[in-house]
Amino acid sequence: MATAEDSDGSDLLSEEDQESKQREADYVVGFRSSMNGARRNSVSSMPVTETMIQSWQGAPVYEKTLDEMARIRAVIEDSSSLQVMFGHLKGREVEGVVGAMFARDVEVGATVIEQGADGDYFYIVDSGTYHIYVKRQGTPPDAQPEWVQTAGPGSSFGELALMYNVARAATVQCAEAGRLWCLDRDCFQMMLVTRMSSTCQEYEKFLAQVDVLFSLTPYEIAKLADLLVDEFCEDGEEIVTQGEESDSVYFLYEGQCAAYMHGEHGEVEVMRYTTPGQYFGEVALVYSEPRRATVRASGECTVLVLKRQDVNLSVGDLRARLVANIEAYPQYEALAPTGAEP
User: Does residue 218 register a pLDDT over 50?
Assistant: First the structure.
């Protein structure tokens, strides 16, 4: 029997098939590294290549007191704008961001950021007062910039130039001496992007094991992975509620949960989800009808959420498979106790 070593290639993939597979692989790599248009990657439009990710040596760690670390962490956790950037990071990853920030003492009158300059750092205000000025387009060259905002302790600034790889949009000057926590551009971009990339790859491996998705191509799986949002649930917490309108499908990622239906004989358990990859909620996603059951966490669990507006269900034959599986759902009547009082 001919082996791969002595084959002339006629018994292997055709040249056309090999080119098709290579294009597919290139699409996946390109999709993972692209910062344009995808929801999770919309945190940054700065292109980050696979080479950059692979050569990233990790962020430095600057010494801080426990109180200083707590103050930085509190700003990240309490700021809705920072949660857009850092909210997807988990415990140790947030600590990595905190550790990579270093202190800079600033005197009155010092210019921290100058409008039009390249972005170099992201800043969190630890103390002091900082005035933010903008010079509008079309104003005379000798016109003074317009004061637009004041930043004090707990504020942050400087992220836009790093997120979108554009020039600084404003000038920031120190009005009252204080201290800033600084995160350099490479750390800012790579700590966010490498986490996004590793998360997407984790989700891709997970989705590839989900039976209903087996027919999707690697590129389609990569697209779905980028659209997933993880949701942690406490024991007994309702993930979906019978009768409510919704538009999401849920994939069990970790832990367990169970589905319950309520009817004339009370509430009965109709399904238990114990295996990662099991899913529920597709009825609402496919048919836009109220939830047929309530699903609660059985102990702590994590689910991955996919919303209707984020995915075209005509991808592959996913929609048809979801519809077929809906008919296999257990019915309340079959499980309700016979002779029970209403």
Answer: yes
Backbone angles phi, psi at 257, to 5 degrees: -150, 170
Q: Is 81 exposed, middle or buried, given 0-12, 13-18 or 19+ CB atoms closer than 10 A?
A: exposed
Q: In this model, does residue 96 exceed pLDDT 80? A: yes
- What percent of the chain is modeled with pLDDT above 70? 71
Q: Is 46 helix (H, G, I), strand (E, B) or coil?
A: coil
The amino acid occupying position 337 is P
List, in sequence order, every residue forming a beta bridge with 173; answer none if it has no partner. Answer: 111, 131
3-class SS string, 136-168: CCCCCCCCCCEEEEEECCCCEECHHHHHHCCCC
Co-location of 119 and 243 in the same domain: no
Read off the pLDDT of residues 134-167 as tens digits, 9 standing for 90 and up. 988 888 888 888 898 899 999 999 988 887 778 8
What's the DSSP call for residue 251? E
Query: Residue 100: which of 78, 76, 119, 128 has the closest Cα?
Result: 76
Please determine, for residue 283, whether its predicted confidence score (pLDDT) is greater than 90: no
The secondary structure of residue 298, as a DSSP letter, is S
How does pLDDT run across 103-119, given as a tens digit for each residue? 999 999 999 999 999 98
The tokens for 136 are 């509008």
Q: How many domains does the chain have?
A: 2
For residues 194 and 189, what is the distance between their CA atoms, to the nearest angstrom? 8
CB 97 within 8 A of CB 86: yes
Residues 282 and 33: their CA atoms lie apart, in Å, by: 30
Beta bridge partners of 129: 176
**Does residue 260 share a domain with residue 173?**
no
- Contact criterion met (CB below 8 Å) for 341 and 266: no
Q: Are residues 190 and 302 in the same domain?
A: no
d(CA 279, CA 284): 13
Residue 47: inside a domain, yes or no?
Answer: yes
Closest CA to 45 of 159, 124, 138, 122: 159
With H, G, I as helix, E, B as strand and everything else as coil, classify residue 334: helix
Side chain identity at residue 169, one-letter code: A
